[in-house]
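Appendix B. Extra example for self-study. Work through it before the problem class; the solution is given directly after the inputs so you can check yourself.
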Amino acid sequence: AQKVTQAQTEISVVEKEDVTLDCVYETRDTTYYLFWYKQPPSGELVFLIRRNSFDEQNEISGRYSWNFQKSTSSFNFTITASQVVDSAVYFCALSGANTGNQFYFGTGTSLTVIP
Amino acid sequence: DVKVTQSSRYLVKRTGEKVFLECVQDMDHENMFWYRQDPGLGLRLIYFSYDVKMKEKGDIPEGYSVSREKKERFSLILESASTNQTSMYLCASSLSSSGREKLFFGSGTQLSVL
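Solution. Structure tokens for the complete assembly:
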């Protein structure tokens, strides 16, 4: 079965704190892709990153970093020195090479950054 | 810049009405999707289309139908709206069916059925 779990429903942090959003996935595919999307209050989901199952290298983009660990089936997202503009709902998603039309989304984590 | 446009941001309808939600993409994408977003449930796939006039059911197709007569346009139809269809509806598109292609989303339509 394909499944994505985001156990954290809501997180609040004070500005400039670091925060990690957890994502755990289940899949039987050997080739799969993991994604993170951000949904600001405007409503439109915005793509942040895609990771291939055969590439476990961690990635950093400015204040954002992603830790992909196949051994624990996790793809966690860390925001360093959080800012108010980071307040949004964040979704983790999974797709498989054999199920290209199906994306499996987690239930989302609502992040509030308090000034 | 690439764009997925949903015709309405907010919509209020009465129980039993026929409702059309329209979505247009300008990226010549093969795939188009309709999702429903509810608090605590994340995004759930209603229908997707991988080509003109082609459609596949997603996880929750009951009470919905779709139409794709042109590549750029994908319509979601609620034949007889019910209060349990009050929700945020999100349209998305992707370039191909490889699984690695990211989704591009519209801004969503918040539908209220009274």
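Self-check: Chain B has a mean pLDDT of 93. If your reasoning did not lead you there, revisit section 3.
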